[in-house]
Write a structure and sequence with these properties.
The chain is of the alpha/beta class. Helices cover 46% and strands 11% of the residues.
């Protein structure tokens, strides 16, 4: 076995001995390399008591190197490959997880958030290239029709603009985002919390096959690994740290999706939240996240997402404005005269000028322009508001800024 093969085998064995993200293992690998670290742990030299117990329990169930070799063979039959930091396609951005520290946490799954030792990948795209320009879209499994619509639209729009859509392959928001990207003919990546040969949930098996055909299925766990509950939170750190930003579409009060957005905040990635009805249980977690984290950005669609993750000054969302009205482009004098006119009947120029607070000469000039715009009419006894039919035609006329001399 070559030295390179030995290092790869050791990384797989270490991931089997201790769950991905274990900081003590990551530090040992950084200091001694994967092969020496594996030898150290198998010899009982773990620096942490709980890690020593975990390694002992796993070792009692089988030989770590034999398990790793079997996993590599199984992946080869599956058409999957192992990607390690020694490979060109390794996504360098996941190194940010070495700095991830979640405050006020005690659970091991929240403390052990180190970078991955390796990835199992199914699909032809280079992993690093796929994640280089990527956005995560996550949310509730029991999504509402509103949430699924938003996730599909965002996934479609991102993929249409050559962004990779990353999610976890779950029911609800995850699946909607993946399908949106696929329908746009774009690239999508599903990061799983189990082996690639037993993707969870099985109800999305056809979706996973579509993703593997045109995008990527990714996991830190070897083929055959079960989708245990803690592994979803372990997986979420990769979704958050491996992308440029995370969009939280819907989330209940207790939602793993908010934990993904939380990890995005603490890795200095952009965390974005789509608001929902305050009466919806599927928006409670999203709204509370906005209240808890001032750095989180409220987004209402693709334009806002692109503004947050795109190039500075180049992907700005358009300002949201109501429909343009002819009066919007009037200057202060013209608007004052228009407001001074009675709702019914007419008023003479002198009285109208006094009421609007302008001189008679200015009033005559502005009233003439307002008449051209069909906003006022001249009568025998002065000026009055145009009838509704004329006013309606005025709304379809050229903008007032196009009329010379109005401003």
């Amino acid at each position: 076995m070559s030295a390179d093969d030995e290092r790869r085998l050791a990384r797989v064995a270490l991931t089997w001995l201790a769950e991905p993200g274990t900081r003590a293992v990551h530090r040992l690998v950084e200091r001694h390399g994967p092969v020496a670290t594996l030898d150290l742990l198998l010899d009982g030299g773990s620096p942490d008591g709980w890690l020593h117990s975990t390694v002992a329990a796993r070792t009692a169930a089988g030989d770590a190197r034999a398990v790793a070799a079997e996993a590599l063979e199984r992946a080869d039959r599956l058409g999957a490959r192992l990607v390690t930091p020694d490979d060109e396609e390794w996504p360098a951005q996941v190194a940010v997880l070495a700095k991830l520290r979640l405050p006020d946490v005690t659970r091991r799954v929240d403390v052990e958030t180190a970078p991955p030792l390796c990835f199992w990948v199914r699909g032809s795209w280079p992993l690093g290239e796929a994640l280089d320009r990527s956005v995560a879209v996550v949310g509730a499994r029991a999504a509402t029709g509103y949430g699924q619509h938003v996730a599909t639209e965002v996934g479609y729009g991102l993929a249409e603009r050559d962004w990779t859509v990353v999610s976890g392959g779950a029911f609800g928001i995850d699946a909607a985002a993946h399908r949106g990207a696929l329908n746009a003919g774009g690239l999508t990546v599903a990061v799983l919390a189990c082996g690639l040969d037993r993707p969870y949930p099985m109800g999305n098996a056809a979706l996973f096959d579509r993703i593997a055909d045109t995008g990527l299925l990714v996991s830190e766990w070897p083929p055959g690994a079960e989708p245990l509950r803690p592994r979803f939170l372990i997986r979420n750190r990769v979704i958050a740290g491996g992308t440029r930003g995370t969009v939280l579409v819907e989330a209940s009060a207790r939602s793993g999706a908010t934990q993904t957005a939380r990890r995005a905040i603490y890795t200095n990635r952009v965390a974005m939240v789509v608001p929902g009805p305050v009466t919806s249980a599927m928006s409670v977690g999203a709204h509370e996240f906005l209240r808890e984290f001032p750095k989180a950005r409220l987004v209402t669609g693709l334009a806002h997402v692109l503004e947050e993750v795109g190039r500075i000054g180049a992907d700005l969302a358009p300002l949201t404005r109501g429909p343009q009205r002819p009066a919007d482009a009037l200057d202060d004098d013209a608007r004052s005269l228009l407001e001074a006119l009675p709702r019914r009947g007419a008023m003479g120029v002198d009285r109208l000028a006094a009421r609007a607070g302008v001189d008679v000469r200015t009033a005559l000039r502005k009233l003439s322009l307002l008449e051209e715009l069909s906003m006022v009419v001249r009568r025998d006894d002065g000026y009055g508001l145009a009838p509704p039919a004329k006013a309606e035609r005025a709304t379809r006329a050229p903008a007032a800024t196009e009329v010379p001399g109005l401003a």
